[in-house]
């Protein structure tokens, strides 16, 4: 039986022909990293290869590592296997990994979204024979509004809270979602304050993206200063003693999981904005079609449901398990 170009094993996604892993979840000698989120970029590998813009992110999160940056579309050869990175549109520095060997082409999507967000390089379909796709929001119920509409709603929410004399606290992951929010908030409404985790990551990325000014919340920051303004914080800050100095405040979460009202109630969030850094149902399907692939491997998410639907469309589709974060037990920020 022919060995597949990419295979899933106990350490990650392995290319035997090149002796290299992609987004390995256990320590390996050499790994290609799709993006900087902790479930895809882990500590302990001997050599990291990733997109140039992801290098400072990985170094900020993992410390001093042996890392090499590549440009989008730049080909590099490992043991006669040709690799290249292509925009995934997920977060800054995110990439799909194209693998070519003996006329066969596979693409590992990593995490991706097909809507240009004005922050990271937009997703580009890469022609291939086999496409490895995430299925984070692989149910028909997930259907996103255009980004411009969502940010119109967020800015209006902030204005209303300001008029009522309350601070607006908006939750989003420190890498990716926070910068997307920051880029599209209207600074003319008021000042934008940040939690330390958000501020530190944003500072790493300021030389790549033109963000509006922010103010770090410190011990000296007063309730009066915050009143009427907006605070961006990671989901982990909700319910902490840190948030008490915001009183009176209103909370909101920007996440694809806000599609479900129950998700907002479980997190005791006042308002939910449906904004995800992943594709919705139609986005995944359209992205797969755009590759022209024949085979699809579905990972992390609603894999069984999505693979079954793809088989009905005529694809040779199957599932594989990974150690990436499961959408069935979300942390509240994607």
From TrEMBL:
InterPro entries: MBL (IPR050698), RibonucZ/Hydroxyglut_hydro (IPR036866), Xnuc_lig_assoc (IPR026360). Keywords: Exonuclease, Hydrolase, Ligase, Nuclease. Gene3D superfamilies: Ribonuclease Z/Hydroxyacylglutathione hydrolase-like. Coiled coil: none annotated. It is an enzyme of class 3 (hydrolase). Its EC number is 3.1.-.-. The keyword DNA repair does not apply. One of its GO terms (molecular function) is RNA endonuclease activity. This is Ligase-associated DNA damage response exonuclease.
């Amino acid at each position: 039986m022919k060995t597949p170009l990419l295979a899933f094993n106990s350490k990650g996604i392995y290319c035997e022909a090149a002796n290299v892993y992609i987004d390995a979840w256990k320590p390996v000698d050499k790994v290609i990293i799709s993006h900087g989120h902790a479930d895809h970029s882990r500590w302990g590998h001997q050599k990291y290869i990733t997109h140039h813009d992801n290098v400072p992110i990985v170094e900020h999160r993992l410390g001093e590592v042996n890392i090499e940056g590549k440009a989008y579309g730049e080909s590099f050869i490992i043991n006669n296997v040709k690799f290249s990175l292509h925009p995934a549109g997920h977060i800054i520095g995110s990439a799909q990994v194209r693998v070519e060997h003996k006329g066969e082409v596979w693409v590992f999507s990593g995490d991706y979204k097909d809507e240009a967000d004005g922050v990271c390089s937009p997703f580009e379909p890469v022609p291939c024979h086999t496409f490895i796709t995430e299925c984070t929001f692989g149910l028909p119920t997930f259907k996103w509004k255009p980004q411009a509409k969502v940010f119109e709603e967020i800015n209006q929410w902030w204005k209303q809270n300001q008029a009522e004399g309350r601070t607006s606290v908006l939750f989003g992951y420190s890498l990716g979602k926070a910068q997307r929010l920051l880029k599209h908030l209207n600074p003319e409404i008021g000042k934008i304050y940040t939690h330390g985790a958000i501020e530190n990551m944003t500072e790493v990325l300021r030389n790549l993206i033109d963000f509006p000014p922010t103010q770090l919340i410190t011990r000296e920051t007063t309730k009066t200063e915050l009143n009427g303004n907006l605070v961006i914080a990671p989901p982990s800050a909700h319910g902490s003693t840190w948030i008490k100095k915001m009183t009176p405040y209103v909370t909101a979460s920007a996440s694809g999981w806000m599609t479900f009202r129950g998700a907002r109630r479980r997190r005791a969030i006042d308002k939910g904005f449906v904004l995800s850094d992943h594709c919705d149902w139609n986005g995944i399907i359209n992205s797969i079609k755009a590759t022209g692939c024949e085979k699809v491997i579905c990972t992390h998410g609603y894999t069984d449901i999505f693979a079954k639907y793809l088989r009905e469309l005529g694809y040779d589709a199957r599932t594989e398990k990974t150690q990436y974060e499961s959408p069935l037990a979300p942390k509240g920020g994607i």
